[in-house]
């Protein structure tokens, strides 16, 4: 395989090439490192690279393979890891100066440990928004004229489809790294859309698993009841392969649910025939929050789903706006609980927007927080009823393509274009799938399913990617 | 959407709400946090307006 072939390949394609002896893990690591040398200064993908340990791991995994031991489908495959997840190689920053350097000193959290035990190689830690919150604060990067704050020592992530645009967040670096061919897949986290939004804006695939399927310990929390760890990759099939390895209860996270082990790749070839997909237009493309280009991509994606055998059914999604709003309010209350003492000690070390945003949590009363939980409980019941009549629900992932840096001051308007937060309030599985280009930037389809129907969601994603090839598109920055 | 006017909380109120948690913040932060409050309150009012029944 030449370097370009490697960088365009999916996890499963690389696994096959490794199995056939067409490439070695060392060759993969070196190829991705050389690509990062050229591309990363433009995309801001990495906070820290682990070049030496990655090469050493690759050598060991190649030796194991030569001796006949293959640990899993990702044996010898390099990955990127968002820098709010603890790893053995070094400190976790959460892209903040406020996080104590001792955080994560215990090393790999369970998800990273599971991938490493399965033979994955950690190439490095990828960029995020500070503490996985919100939009980029340009004051941190001196991209505006504000003299309020000195620049922080963190790169600004940029979209490989247009360096003038935000790649989305907060799993920014993992998304840009997959999109720009710096690794085939990686880990992100999703509290209001932070896997699916950057996946959508960067033209890659991202899966937010059902809440409770994947343990969250070893991750700097944002909103403990909204946070999810999941994969970003080139395809739904790759997401399924990674989910196979990271799913499962862990005693360190008592929100995880003990369930029989499931092979999320087993039914990926079953297609869409007969599946009923609810189309939630009234809360998205018909609500005035989608651009014409994204709306057109969505209609084309629905045509592809229909052509592949799905039965499309218009649906009214109950409590959509309230569930979105409860996500934004509830996560700040939960974030404040975790950050309270840190804010008291290190207020000035936080970015301006981050500390102000989290401090909102002090303004949410106990009664407010309880009502948020009541609303979520009602929402789960009402949406479960909806899933009695359809198998999946389709929307765009976002109503617009990536936002230009410095060009979108109206944040409340921007929030209304995000169609991801209701699924965080509900804890339901949802996948973001590339569905075309609008204004030369990626648009994304979101498919969501009932709790613990991750296999069905991934199967539908794989079927969509059997009849479309947007997930194979490569960006101008490559 | 509930578009009723929500007054900004006085800066002293924000100071107190943070202060009980041991947090002190400069004036410009306090003003900015106070300005976030009407949006937060409107979101919460909308959530409170949902009849969640007696079972939750």
* Contiguous runs where pLDDT drops below 50 for at least 5 residues of chain B: none
Largest sheet of chain B: none
The radius of gyration computed from the alpha-carbon positions of chain A, rounded to a whole number of angstroms, is 21 Å
Distance between the termini of chain A: 17 Å
Instruction: Name the helix and strand elements of chain A from N-terminus to C-terminus, one letter apiece.
Output: HHHEHEHEHEHEEHEHEHHHEHHEEH
Helical/strand content category of chain A = alpha/beta
Contiguous uncertain segments of 5+ residues of chain A = 145-149
Overall 3D shape of chain A: globular
What share of the residues of chain A lie within helices?
A: 25-40%
Helix content of chain B: 55-70%
The total beta strand count of chain A reads 11
Let me know the number of strands of chain B. 0
Number of helices of chain B: 2
Count of alpha/pi helices of chain A: 15
Please trace the helix and strand order of chain B, writing H or E for each element: HH
